[in-house]
Amino acid sequence: MIARRTHIQTISLFLLLLCGVPTQANDRTCTPNREGTMVCPEPDASCKADRTGEVICSTAGGGIELNRYGDPVCGPGYCAKDLRGDIFCSNQLRGAASVDRYGNAVCAGECVAAMPQRCVKPKPQQ
After folding, report:
1. What spatial distance separates the first Cα and last Cα of the chain, rounded to whole Å?
2. Domain range list for the chain
3. How far is residue 109 CA from its own chain's centroid?
4. 94: phi > 0 → left, psi -120 to 50 → alpha, else beta; which?
5. How far apart are CA 81 and CA 74, in angstroms?
6. 3-state secondary structure at position 25
7. Positions of E strands within the chain
């Protein structure tokens, strides 16, 4: 009986850890736009669909997140959303960004505000 309980606990722990796997990798796949045409990011870039279904991408090595209005905003490095919902990105290409225990954004190098002007519109695949 104890062995069975340990086996169930192990499976439960595995499933719990599996749920915590970051989904950033899924953002690097091709995404259909609102017309159904597949749109793929450039190498080392990510894409997201905005609230209207238009696909917008980061530049290579940059980050992309949806702001509180559902609009994509980008930065030179990876991005994080702070406790207030503001999005900050590392000022370094491929620079890490996260949130500390107080809910403040922390970044490799310096944190800069994410902006829609840093995003790019990808070309649909043929």
Report:
1. 58
2. 24-118
3. 19
4. left
5. 12
6. helix
7. 31-32, 38-39, 47-49, 55-57, 63-66, 72-75, 79-81, 87-90, 97-99, 105-107, 111-113
With left for phi above 0 and alpha for psi between -120 and 50, is residue 112 left, alpha or beta? beta
The tokens of 21 are what? 């796997």
Region class of 27: left (phi > 0), else alpha (psi between -120 and 50), else beta: alpha
Instruction: Look up tokens 């669909």; give the residue.
Output: 49
0.85 exceeded by pTM: no
pLDDT, tens digit, for every residue of 6-34?
544 544 444 443 443 343 434 457 888 88
Q: Which two tokens stand for residue 122?
A: 């990808």
